[in-house]
Write a structure and sequence with these properties.
single chain, mainly alpha
């Protein structure tokens, strides 16, 4: 039951992230999550060119963050489907339900996450 509700949350987040990603980037290459930032075209004036470059740089940064989030969600969904969800990748112990409710893509228990700092 818990994993089903987490799966629904992850799938809904995935849809929203893909929608946001498609606003700043275009699908490219192979793989489901390959996107490249789109260079905007505002006009030919010098100030418009500067705005285009600034928007493009922002789009690259936002796109990379969205792709990373999408990859984390896909990994969590893959773990749910394989029965490996909710276990720490370092020590193998169960990750607390409270942590997974807050961060459904968590890959480490709190103890191992603290050790990584």
């Amino acid at each position: 039951m818990f994993k089903n509700s987490i799966k629904e949350v992850l799938q809904e987040r995935r849809k929203k992230i893909k929608s946001s990603l498609e606003q700043v980037a275009k699908k490219s290459g192979r793989g489901e999550n390959n996107y490249n930032a789109v260079f905007p075209q505002y006009g030919r004036a010098e100030d418009e060119n500067a705005e285009e470059v600034a928007a493009f740089i922002d789009g690259i940064s936002m796109g990379e963050n969205l792709k990373k989030s999408l990859d984390e969600i896909d990994l969590a969904l893959k773990k749910i489907n394989s029965g490996k969800y909710g276990f720490c990748e370092t020590c193998g112990k169960k990750i607390s339900k409270e942590r997974l409710k807050i961060l459904p893509t968590a890959r480490y228990c709190l103890n191992c996450k603290e050790d990584k700092k």
